[in-house]
Design a protein that fits this description.
The chain is an all-beta fold and about 70 residues long. The chain contains no helices and 6 strands. Bound molecules: copper (II) ion (CU). Copper (II) ion binds next to loops.
Length: about 70
C-alpha cells in the first residue's frame, strides 16, 4: 500500500463468534460490521507511511496494514 492512494480491503467472516462481528480501524476512525458469510469492503485513504492496526472492538483479533 502506498500513502495517498485509496485502498479497498475485503473482509469475509467465516465464523460466528460475536467477538468478530465488527472490525475497527482506530487510526482512521472507521469501523464496519461483518455479517458471517458476507464480503464487506472497507475503503481507507492512508495519508502517511506507517503501520496501522485494526482489530475487533475488544482488541483480541488483530491485524495491521503497512503503508509505504
Ligand atoms: Cu474481540
Amino acid at each position: 500500500m502506498r500513502a495517498g492512494k485509496p485502498v479497498r480491503l475485503n473482509f469475509r467472516r467465516e465464523e460466528t463468534a460475536s467477538c468478530s462481528d465488527r472490525v475497527v480501524f482506530a487510526d482512521f476512525d472507521k469501523s464496519a460490521e461483518l455479517p458471517t458469510g458476507e464480503t464487506v469492503a472497507v475503503e481507507l485513504l492512508p495519508k502517511a507511511p506507517g503501520e496501522y492496526g485494526f482489530s475487533c472492538p475488544m482488541g483480541m483479533f488483530r491485524g495491521r496494514l503497512i503503508v509505504e
